[in-house]
Amino acid sequence: MGIDMLDLSGKVALITGGSRGLGRRIAMAYAVRGADVIVASRKQNNCEDLAELLRAEYRVKAWGIGTNVSHWGQCDALVERAYALAGQVDILVNNAGLSPVYASLSEVTEGLYDKTLDVNLKGPFRLSATIGARMASAGGGSIINVSSTESLYPTAQALPYAMAKAALNTLTLGLVQAYSPAVRVNTIVPGPFKTDIAQAWDPITFQSTADATIAMRRAGEPEEVVGAALYFASDASSYTTGAMLRVDGGVFGAFR
């Protein structure tokens, strides 16, 4: 039998926004492949619940750490706690995101603007800078930024979010320069997925928009992000860094 290049045994993965949505699916996929998992998100109870499930179902080590990644100090505390508990971090997935609703661009408040950029950009920057340096010193690691097709096809309805995600794409390339050759840094660019946010969609309006802007004419199922997340985390992508992998069903225009 050949070597399983997707095997993550002996690795420790830290996933922000890890208690639900795409982050939850990624956490479960990594545990299936043998990784120990640190689940980070704002609500401690949700983190602990998923960590308990991972330990029970997949017989891996798992920890839940409540963290608001929009706060620099909480990012630093997360890093210290993660290394204290697990001893290492081999895979960092910057998945936490926020795309708030607003009536019009002129009504975007400074608070909403700052919060959007802090969650989507400041958190990934600080975590990647600190963990990336440790990964490089340890001889290797993988950082995975979760962006959005909004970064490629921005809309007025989500412009601060689109701006932050476009900057996240740039962050990926800068981190490659900072931490290569030991650390690989890549970006997953999801389109619309049927996560919690999909509950607010009007099905008829969504389908009309999907028909006009998505080649596959549907939203993704959460488990459909797993292949990309496993690829970037594992030895299967050992010669891949600075890449942007769209997992979007073939989005070809702004999703309005």
Descriptive account of the structure:
It is a single chain. With 256 residues, this protein is of the alpha/beta class. It has a single domain (12-246), classed as NAD(P)-binding Rossmann-like Domain (Rossmann fold). The protein contains 7 helices and 7 strands; from the N terminus they run βαβαβαβαβαβααβ. It has helices at 21-32, 44-58, 72-86, 110-138, 159-179, 203-213, 226-233; strands at 12-16, 36-41, 62-66, 91-94, 141-146, 183-190, 244-247. It has a 7-stranded parallel sheet, with helices on both faces. α3 runs parallel beside α4 (110-138) and α4 (110-138) runs parallel beside α5. The protein is globular. The termini are far apart. The mean pLDDT is 96.
Give structural attributes.
256 residues; alpha/beta; Rossmann fold; seven-stranded parallel β-sheet; 7 helices; 7 strands
Task: Provide a compact summary of the structure.
43% of the residues lie in helices and 15% in strands. It has 256 residues and is an alpha/beta fold. The protein starts with 11 loop residues before the first strand and ends in a 9-residue tail after the last strand.
